[in-house]
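Support case: NAP complex. Customer-provided input:
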Amino acid sequence: MVISGAGSGIGRACAELLRDRGWRVWAGYRRAEDGRALAAAGFRPLRLEVRDERSVAEAAATVAACCGADGLQGLVNNAGIAVAGPLEFLPLASFELQLDVNLTGVLRCGRAFLPLLRRGRGRMVNIGSMAGLIAGPMLGPYHASKWALEGLSDTWRRELLPQGVAVALIEPGAVATPIWRRSAAAAEELAAGLPEEAGRLYGRLHEGARRAAVRAEARAVPPARVAAAVRHALEARRPRTRYRVGRDARLAAVLRWLPDRWLDRLILRP
Ligand SMILES: NC(=O)c1ccc[n+]([C@@H]2O[C@H](COP(=O)([O-])OP(=O)(O)OC[C@H]3O[C@@H](n4cnc5c(N)ncnc54)[C@H](OP(=O)(O)O)[C@@H]3O)[C@@H](O)[C@H]2O)c1
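Agent response - structure generated as follows:
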């Protein structure tokens, strides 16, 4: 199994569960100290920067050299970041970074590991989000990345079905991981660099989104819940195409069928 971004949060929980079930786990990391910690925990550390084509190719070559003719049983495209800010003022570079990691990164890794997955009749599991089902203000880049990942995953599933490679999409609601702290810190930094006009036009929405994030994080489920869904997608005889993890994700899957104007009122209520 290969897992991108396995140093913390959902990736780490997946790595632990799959290791405990006897899989050989290649755990993706970026910083040397994370690689050492992953090795000490019984994983095979795999340097994997999903934004860098060369890093991805080297990672695939490392795994290929080890698994040879057996191929690879699973790829979990987990690495992700959450970029927040008003679409009007957000630097384009931040938007591009968001898509590069959460969307193009999945494409890069999928393409690099597909020959191995085909050989092993393995499966691809992409970590989406309920943010790919319903979009609110101030998290536009993240929503765009996860909505696009819905389309990418559906296309890939239908392209690979005839080749015996199953693709599943996990759509978690709020999960207790460091992404919240990381994203909030990046959002505050970004907001501090925006013109005064941005505060005037979007300050109220920014504050509302910040409060909603605090509430969501307080209700967040442990990452082990997501890992259990990933395990099912990788091991079950008949894996599902989509897994919604958490009550909030299941609710989002229903609410998104409401008329847009109702949802606008619901999402923007003070
Ligand atoms: N937490 C939630 O509420 C939630 C809900 C739905 C979906 N998700 C999704 O779950 C996935 C995992 O997030 P998490 O919540 O577990 O957050 P996390 O603890 O911050 O983990 C994100 C992981 O992605 C890695 N990463 C970030 N950029 C990378 C890059 N360019 N190349 C390779 N690795 C990179 C990080 O590595 P570094 O430590 O090196 O930065 C980290 O290991 C993401 O796709 C996220 O969108 C999370």
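The mean pLDDT is 96.

Case will auto-close in a few days if no follow-up is received.
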